Amino acid sequence: MKHTRRIALPLLALGSAACLPAQAADPAFARVFNDHAVLQRGEPITVWGTADAGSALTLTLNGRSVSGKADGKGKWRLQLPQQAAGGPYTLTLSSGARSASVNDVMVGDVYLCSGQSNMEFAVRNSTNAWATTNASANSKLRFLNIEKTSANAPQDELKQASWKVAAPDTIGDASATCYYMARSLQQRYGIPVGFINASWGGTTIQGWIGAESLRTMPAYAEGVGLVQQLATDPAGAMRREEARVEAWWDVHDPAAARERAFKAPGFDDSAWPQLTPTGSWKDSGVAALHDFDGVAWFRTTVDLTEAQAASANALQLGPVETFDTAWINGVRVGGGATGWMWRDYPVAQGTFKAGRNVIALRVLNNGGAGGLTGQPATRGVRTAGGELIALNAAWKYRLGTPMKGQTVAPSPWDVPTSLTTLYNGMIAPLAGYKFKLAAWYQGESNAGAGEEYRTLLPLLMRDWRQRLKQPALPFLVVQLPGYGAAPRAPGKSGWAELREAEALAVRNDAHAGLAVTLDLGDRFDIHPTQKTIVGDRLARAARVVAYGDKDITPGGPEAVSVAREGGDIVVVFRQTNGGLLTYASDRAIGFETCAGDTCKYAEAVVAGDRVVLKGANLPGVTQVRYAWADAPFVNLFGADDVPAAPFRMDVK
Fold it and tell me: I need a surface site. Which of 122, 325, 557, 591 has the fewest CB within 10 A?
């Protein structure tokens, strides 16, 4: 997990400092305000940054100015009156003879895009990327990718930020889904458009919700509190977490109490064999490790100078499969529970010492590759100045108790399942920046918990609207596409339940829209590449929800009622946009009737805005489901080629 690091500045000798005048700081903008930025039209424009404490400031954009002062901590926040779309302009901040400026600023519409890997998925990897890239030059379309940042408290500032103008040499780095949406809307409305992408692959929704909101759910209150304690009392929080993890080991491993001696810096490991990890246990060449599921201990050392020890602030281990706990000189510094995530543990000052330092690592493999799966060059001690001091490549190791089917619950700050830390690092610094809409593409990592997602997604939407002070901010949700095993018979589906939760969140929100993508998935790849249509469907929803277009519907067919009619059951749809149609068959596939927990496929015939389930009105049938599978095959569409939304509904 990555944290914002503060660089320790060298101190001047007291005698010299006493003779120097106070150094005035040039006024500066927050990092989100830089060349090529887009500011939201039709809203008061809030701008903020730093300057000398108490200094008088004047902020100017497009001939309009506002004045104010920096506070006692050198922070300022000023608000310009709303402006119409236009530009390019120069945003200028002056304080006496000193000034700062941001060039090539546009006023238009700004979109906030967020989620996990399918929102992060870059244009360069999308279908037809070559043609898209070559035709991308557009001075009225800009984007900003927020650096992945996990923080234990809400941050005032982004790690770094750089707005880019859409062009062949830049657009490949943009979020494909967000770009295709923005491109469609910019072309339609002709105004400048900017989009900010704050996404992180593999993450769960719990990490993107602010602490005050997430802690209202009893299941997360304690974990959120522990994250907050880590921000103010890291040693205390780490002791609490160590007690929790070690209690788990005492229950599950009879050797745990004895093996804790292995973390001590003075432990004699001279009799342990040696290994240089360059991949998984299976590839290590050590027969005992090849098929080993269980706990193993690793120890290595690093020598530091006094200056290096004083500056050292992180331990970088690369990926570890699967569960680990790390100690430096006997002090616990972190632990992880996801095999593909890099271990990048922040380390409190004073933990590293001048001279020899001992790193101890306990690893539990649970059917995976096992061990330190990266390369030796990725492992080291990071300093405040950004230097990576390599660990000894060779590690001593010792096998512990064989264990199968055991998992250690992650720490509440561990990405990708962290609580509130992604909001803190990537959304909180945007508070004050106004948006036309927010687009959300996430849920793969919460599949299997659809019932909980019914609470979490509306909670996130409310939380962001509160934090951004935009109570009616339009939210667009990409419903999960198909992925996984194709159904051969009706059954349970975690992905279908997650899609239902997304649909319910949108249906119950007057300022939300849904983009159905069932037909755009790849059952063999969780990252389908056809993002152009996903973006176009988001743009369609945006036209209605954010722009008030009354000439179209926000999406495709949605079931509104299921009723008995003679020997049949009839499903009525809205938003068919001219009537339902089926592809490759005169029957609609994927409909099921359910009697209790027993479901079976039904013969479905399209008739205008209705689907008739022939002969389905049988005793005991109480529910109809459609496309209820992880990766359903579908052929039911509206007249304008948008797929019908999946659903389950009780029969009236």
Answer: 122
